[in-house]
Write a structure and sequence with these properties.
Elements (H helix, E strand, L loop, with lengths): L10 E9 L2 E8 L2 E6 L8 E4 L5 E3 L1 E6 L1 H8 L2 E2 L8 H8 L7 E6 L9 H7 L5 E5 L4 E4 L1 H9 L7 E4 L2 E7 L2 H7 L8 H9 L2 E6 L6 H12 L6 E6 L12 E9 L8 H13 L4 E5 L2 H14 L6 E4 L5 H10 L3 E3 L3 H12 L12 H6 L3 E3 L10 H10 L16 H6 L3 E2 L2 E5 L10 E4 L3 H4 L8 E6 L2 E5 L3
Parallel strand pairs: 1-4, 6-13, 7-8, 8-9, 13-14, 14-15, 15-16, 16-17, 17-18, 18-19
Antiparallel strand pairs: 1-2, 2-3, 5-22, 9-10, 10-12, 11-12, 20-21, 22-23, 23-24
């Protein structure tokens, strides 16, 4: 159900920089840019004096998990860099209170793969569940397990050793939501936080998204909790969704797991079904084996302009040549270089380092790449990810593939790509949607240190959704 569109005041940006050293006026009427140049503002217009500051198309996060991001905001951090050892984990989980304590971001470098006995030692006073940073594993203490199994049969993914439950749950998010009687969260906290970062568009990438999730997104957008435009990827069940004004149908999400690849013929059939729905396929590839499997699928089916690779964490030169030949774009998470780089350098053989989270060499070869956060499994701040792409520095101060560094301009362009044509960079020009990000200074100054604090105003669909001076 769509709500009637509000009556919007025109907006005029005076002397805004839309290209290096080029300033002009920009007129927004309703949800469209209608004039760029010298503008006589309508009588009822809101006039914003940009004073030479850069006006950008609104940033687009090309890979995010919105509901999980809301949950993460209400959880405690249980992994690096905040928590790095068993003592820190105990402090994180030992906080007083009643009801569920939800931890996120756990990595086995902290204390291996915890079982319920370890979690009981750290926190037995309340039910606890801790999510691995991959999003694929949960760890429960005994109190938590008792709640889950009181009225629900254990799923196949609940680990059992020597006749008892370990408290480790693998790839069972649907079962967990049912067991917890979870209701969809309100999105206002995430919507507001993203607006402050200059983000006006999202590609939501949770593979289980279906009609219920689409309806929830639509309701959250109508009520204003989520002001951004959304491209909703997910399951084949989404093919029945009728796209709405700001909620578009995105690709079929194929989430590969190297340890358990899906049936080949069934996977080909799913991709064909997505194409019959007019959708591309976005394939999760974080290992070389997953990328090889994916390239084999597309070698058999061919590639459409809506197909894409998610993450591309490991891309050897031989596979890069195949990607180029097929024309498959990759949505990267440049922020992982900073936040996870130290762990990668510790865990991965040095011979493979040149293949990890490549950026410049992919672009130089002619491959199309765009930027996503993978929030909450990565940080949501695109400016931090841009800095990571430019500096290629880990949290501990180690250089991580410095030959892959991008210029500030190329890093910014990762978030200006058209979500339906990743090879096209959106521009400030008449006839395009009024999704805008005004900085507080010219680009020649902003490029030196890429910071979210430089965002002065964000406009989504012709509506001001963030002003720094408010």
């Amino acid at each position: 159900m769509s709500a009637p569109k509000p009556v919007l005041r025109p907006i005029v940006f005076r002397e805004a920089e839309i290209a290096d050293g080029e300033t002009c006026d920009v007129l927004v009427v309703h949800d469209e840019i209608v004039a760029v140049g010298s503008v006589n503002p309508p009588q009822d217009a809101m006039v914003v004096d940009a004073n030479g500051a850069r006006l950008l198309p609104g940033l687009h996060d090309h890979h995010i998990h919105v509901a999980a991001s809301v949950a993460a905001m209400q959880s405690v951090r249980c992994g690096p860099p905040e928590v790095t050892d068993l003592k820190g984990l105990g402090q994180a989980l030992g906080r007083p209170g009643e009801g569920w304590l939800r931890g996120v971001g756990y990595h086995e470098s902290v204390a291996g793969l915890p079982d319920r006995h370890l979690l009981d030692e750290l926190a037995s006073h309340r039910p606890v569940r801790v999510q691995h940073r991959s999003g694929r594993m949960w760890f429960f203490n005994s109190a938590g397990l008792d709640i889950l199994l009181a009225d629900h049969a254990p799923p196949p993914g609940l680990e059992r050793q020597a006749g008892e439950w370990t408290g480790r749950l693998f790839d069972e998010d649907s079962w967990l939501r049912s067991a917890l009687a979870a209701t969809p969260p309100v999105f206002d906290a995430v919507g507001g936080a993203l607006a402050r970062l200059g983000i006006t568009g999202l590609t939501e990438m949770s593979p289980a998204n279906a009609l219920v999730e689409a309806g929830h997104f639509a309701a959250q957008m109508v009520c204003g909790a989520l002001p951004q435009r959304v491209v909703l990827a997910g399951s084949l069940a989404l093919g029945e969704w009728q796209p709405q004004d700001r909620l578009a149908l995105g690709p079929f999400k194929l989430h590969l797991h190297e340890a358990h690849f899906p049936d080949w013929d069934e996977t080909l059939a799913a991709i064909r079904a997505a194409r019959e729905q007019g959708r591309g396929t976005a394939v999760h590839c974080v290992s070389e084996a997953e990328l090889v499997f994916t390239l084999g699928l597309f070698a058999e089916l061919g590639v459409t302009k809506l197909d894409r690779i998610e993450h591309g964490s490991v891309i050897p030169d031989a596979l890069l040549e195949t990607l180029l030949h097929m024309g498959l774009p990759v949505v990267v998470q440049a922020g992982f270089v900073e936040t996870r780089g130290d762990q990668y350098l510790a865990d991965i053989p040095q011979v493979e380092w040149p293949w990890l989270y490549r950026l410049a060499s992919l672009q130089d070869a002619g491959l199309v790449i765009a930027g996503g956060s993978d929030s909450p499994y990565g940080g949501a701040d695109p400016w931090a990810a841009m800095r990571s792409a430019v500096e290629r520095m880990t949290l501990a101060g180690q250089l991580f593939g410095p030959q892959e560094a991008l210029s500030p301009e190329r890093a910014l362009a990762l978030y200006l790509a058209d979500p339906f044509d990743l090879g096209r960079i959106r521009q400030i020009e008449p006839g395009v949607a009024a999704d805008l990000c005004l900085l507080d200074r010219p680009w020649s100054q902003a490029r030196d240190i890429l910071l979210a604090q430089r965002v002065r105003m964000t406009v989504c669909c012709g509506t001001v959704v963030y002003r720094a001076d408010d």
